[in-house]
Amino acid sequence: MTEEKRQENKVGSLREGAESDAASSAAQQEKVEEGQPVGGARGEQDAAAGCLYLVTTPIGNLEDLTARAVRVLREVDLIAAEDTRQTRKLLSHLSIHQRVVSYYREKEQERAEMLLDHLRSGRQVALVSDAGTPGLSDPGAVVVAKAVAAGIRVVPVPGVSACLAALVASGLSTTRFVFEGFLPRKPKERESRLAALAREERTIVLYEAPHRLTKTLSALAAALGPDRPVVIARELTKKYEEFWRGTLAEAVEAWTAREVRGEFTLVVAGLAPRGEERSASRDYLPFYQEILRRRAAGEKASGVIREIAQREGLPRSELYQFYLEKSPSSSPDFD
What we know:
By secondary structure, this protein is of the alpha/beta class. The chain has 14 helices and ten strands. It folds into three domains: 3-160, Tetrapyrrole methylase, N-terminal domain (Cobalt-precorrin-4 Transmethylase, domain 1, 3-Layer(aba) Sandwich); 172-268, Tetrapyrrole methylase, C-terminal domain (Methyltransferase, Cobalt-precorrin-4 Transmethylase, Domain 2), CATH 3.30.950.10; 275-326. 46% of the residues lie in helices and 15% in strands. It has a five-stranded parallel sheet with strand order 3-2-4-1-5, sandwiched between helices. Strands 6-7-10-8-9 form a five-stranded mixed sheet. β8 (229-234) and β9 (242-247) form a beta hairpin. α8 (187-198) packs across α9 and α9 (213-224) packs antiparallel against α10 (248-256). Mean pLDDT is 84; it is low at 17-40, 42-47 and 275-281.
């Protein structure tokens, strides 16, 4: 079955569940527009109290939309969207006809107060972004903070995340990580953030737009070092999903030479601990033994280390340092 056919089947099954509530949804919309409080998301919250739902939407594949998300969107009184046009396309596929209002970053404070008025009046409000989770590199944090301060219940309706999808498939450490979203655009703030990331030992996850990808990769290579491993996830959950793996220096070269299109998530290895801590976190001993064998066969250590680092996606400088620590009397015979 083709990807397009699977998507059509998913839309159809979700639409069937929505059609039975179409009439009641229209009635709810009329009441909201007339200013009358009505109940919503009945399985989650008593109609007497307002509730803010943070609904995660698909990042590219409609099959990632959860049944719970569909039900909440169907039952709330009001849907606040980052881009109403984008959200209405999704709702139209699901035959959901609730009232949709805009909630975007440029007027986030003003729109947050508007939503708070609805919540105080007892209405159920769903907040969505164009793709992914509201508040994560998208508008949402302001109204959540205001709702919490006002004693209004906030309910997450989780789903797919580009950050987590890229991280778990990266092959880098998932034990500890830091999500940076988009790097600052202002030069001084960007420089300061990069300097902090250069010392970060946790795995780093970033988002980047296609037109800024190579510039960001170059900045990361300069700040974190050219040999730092990176995984570039492109078009996650979509038909042309891709994972590219290598070092930051290799990434700059590779992505400068190709057409850059799509949505990007970068997963960068953290700064490796030094000495014994580094040895414990990365098992370099098999590579060290390979270097010794190949050096005994006449190869130069420099060439072997370079080849292994590229093959395994390891920082060449770290592998070289490990080799020197284990063989302090040996000549590195580096070119």
